[in-house]
Amino acid sequence: MVSTASSAPSSPAVPVALLRAGRPKQWLKNVLVFAAPGAAGVLDQWHELWLTMVTFVAFCCAASATYIWNDLLDVEADRRHPTKRRRPIAAGDLPIPVARLAVVVLPLLAVGLAAVTGRWQTPAVISVYLVLQMLYTLWWKHVAVLDVIAIASGFVLRAAAGAVAVDVPMSRWFVLCVTFGSLFIVVGKRYAELNELGAAAGVRATLEVYSAGYLRILLSVSMGGALISYCVWAFETGTASTSDWPFYELSIVPMLAALFRYLLVLENGEGAAPEEVFAHDRVLQLLGACWLVIYGIAVYSA
Fold first, then answer.
1. What distance in Å separates the CA atoms of residue 141 and residue 280, rounded to the nearest whole number?
2. What is the pTM of this model?
3. How far is CA 119 from the centre of its chain?
4. What value, to the nearest 5°, has the Cα angle with vertex 152 and ends 193 and 57?
5. Is the sign of the CA dihedral 65, 70, 75, 81 positive or negative?
6. Torsion over CA: 275, 276, 280, 283 (sign)
């Protein structure tokens, strides 16, 4: 008698598929949770570091829930996409009932973890993020301009979550820098997708509306806004610093170079997956390390 293989995924494969559906590579975005505590110079204190790490994990759970839910709703469209068809749900590696259960459990886990910080603002920010992503998945991702604003807002909420978790203020220039920087990354993603998909751009509704010229204008505006706000923030912070060395001002150099480098990456037809760019572009990694060292010295040597 000839045995036939079951079409259902094997038990050990399901947890792996669930982890893949949660897109752990995207968790890199949640590093923004450390931005405000790091800028405030409190990450050298164990309690604040612990609260920030808990908030980071909470955002990873929340983000993964939104990714899985999005894949559940877009499963048919993903199967027509050149790369998204390999996602666990679209490929049939993750059973639909398991994915639905994860969409219920992960947000509850995220809000519960955020509550551990002891500040009601942290689970509130996580909840706003979840609602925002729900609106994006159901509606805004099909509306040009609203789609990029919704995604960029998610980055700003990540930074805000880190700030409220350890109770440090965010300056208006910090908020503007994160906002314009987020728009730069998100618009760059749309620009790269438009160039990459070409005639197949119809798999994402807004790509049929955007033109390359329009996205280039948005890239210029967002990059300029990010650079100007960062420069003002660096100079203001440097003026208030007690250090004799202009480390805050010097951090502008690697920041400017990183923006220029990323713009070059976009012009070379990459950037549809920003996390892949940051993970593999050695020049960006070097510039990021230089910025981190210079800014770290500025904050923790004062």
1. 28
2. 0.89
3. 23
4. 105
5. negative
6. negative
